[in-house]
Amino acid sequence: MMMDKIEELERRYQELEALLSDPSIISNQPEFRKLSREHSDLSELVAAYRRYRKILAEIADNRELLADPDMKEMAEDELKSLETEKDQLDADIQMLLLPKDPNDNKSVILEIRAGTGGDESALFAGDLFRMYSRYADTNRWRVEIISASESERGGYKEIIASVEGEGVFAKLKYESGTHRVQRVPETEAQGRIHTSACTVAIMPEAEDVDIDIRPDDLKIDVYRSSGAGGQHVNTTDSAVRITHIPTGTVVACQEERSQIKNRAKAMKVLKTRILDTIQQAQDSKLAANRKQQVGSGDRSERIRTYNFPQGRMTDHRIGLTLYRLDSIMTGDIGEITDALRAFYQMEALKAQSEGNY
Questions:
Q1: Are residues 236 and 117 in the same domain?
Q2: What is d(CA 357, CA 349) in angstroms, rounded to the nearest whole number?
Q3: Domain end: 96, 126, 161, which one?
Q4: Is 70 helix (H, G, I), strand (E, B) or coil?
Q5: 3-state DSSP call for residue 19?
Q6: Pick from 42, 61, 123, 192: most CB atoms within 10 A?
Q7: For the domain that residue 337 is a member of, what is the CATH number?
Q8: 200 with 161, same domain?
Q9: Residue 73 shares a structural domain with residue 34
Q10: Based on the domain organization, do 77 and 155 belong to the same domain?
């Protein structure tokens, strides 16, 4: 264990505690939020390390008691328990020392697109969106649709939404990739199983400090919203399409009745997509120097299969199979996201110990 590094982080934690009680810091809200986040990031590590030191002291005390015949048996039992806790804390601290993804606390832009499979793929895109929406509800996150292209038979050809809350990216970042479904469509008269697919992209929401876009690089078009009809559809030029000329990135939004709100939503997605492109390129370069690219995946990779006839979900990256597809599709995916995070943390720990991280 890297004691010097941990003790340095503990000193920084104590320094942050003092800073956060300083009136001049409290009055500077951006700085206060920044320091509060850093304090929160260190709190679990510091608590584990302080408990670890206490355990070491208790182990030393109990070893001294082994020389006392009257206390030996009790000391031996206590030592077994303390050694077990010490080993667990040691593993926990090693994990907490891993470099943190700076995006973990961010909200995300979620994009789901129907792929192979026609109408069935669009229906599955709708199923996936409901799955993530219900998972968001259990975590008290806020989901807001930015744009949606509905299919005639239901579901979505494409849906883009923001998911806002604490630590959204940390839990959802391994969901990016191709999701495959195997089931009998309602329109299939002979009961044959069809295979369809959707792609999911999870992108950390860009903040103003992350990326600077020049107004001269934007082409903004306004047009009338199209939809199922109603009082506010096709009556005003409220829909917005923004093109980032240097990259050719195009984002459109027509969900709101207000052109100003649609423009703000479209800009949010545009910045996020551009930042994601930059980060994907950086990750690809880093991957060449690592044993494994940790924390990002090939968006075209088939990551998961949902087999409805067998009630089975299989995540192909970690070999996890669960036979409770009904509950998974209603948003009960915490076991999956936790397993993925644990797997990639262990991969990162392995890479760090081998000097490849």
A1: no
A2: 8
A3: 96
A4: coil
A5: helix
A6: 123
A7: 3.30.70.1660
A8: yes
A9: yes
A10: no
Nearest to 218 by CA among 242, 193, 192, 196: 242
Q: What is the rounded CA–CA span in Å between residue 339 and residue 318?
A: 8
Q: Is the CB of residue 143 less than 8 Å from the CB of residue 165?
A: no
Contact (CB, 8 A) for 206 and 275: yes
Gap between the terminal Cα atoms of the chain: 17
Same domain for 132 and 262? no
Q: Which of 47, 74, 96 is the last residue of a domain?
A: 96
**Residue 326: exposure state from Cβ atoms within 10 A (0-12, 13-18, ≥19):** exposed
Range of the structural domain that residue 325 is part of:
108-208+293-353
Residue positions counted in the chain = 357
Assigned token pair, 128: 């996936």
The two three-digit tokens of residue 124, written as one number: 């599955």
The answer to whether residues 40 and 72 belong to one domain is yes
- Which residues make beta-bridge pairs with 113? 158, 199
What distances in angstroms separate CA 312 from CA 9, 31, 309, one per listed residue?
44, 48, 8
Using alpha carbons only, give the angle 5, 10, 15 rounded to the nearest 5 degrees: 125
Same domain, 321 and 203: yes
214-250 pLDDT, tens digit per residue, is: 888 889 988 887 654 444 444 567 889 999 998 888 9
How far, in Å, CA of 307 to CA of 4, rounded? 50
The predicted-structure confidence for 89-135, as pLDDT tens digits, reads as follows: 988 888 788 777 888 888 999 999 999 888 899 999 999 999 999 99
> Could you tell me if 102 and 136 are in contact, meaning their C-beta atoms sit under 8 angstroms apart?
no
Residues 279 and 307 in one domain: no
**H-helix or E-strand spanning residue 211:** none
pTM: 0.71
DSSP codes, 75-133: HHHHHHHHHHHHHHHHHHHHHHTSPPPTTTTS-EEEEEEE-TTTHHHHHHHHHHHHHHH
Number of domains in the chain: 3
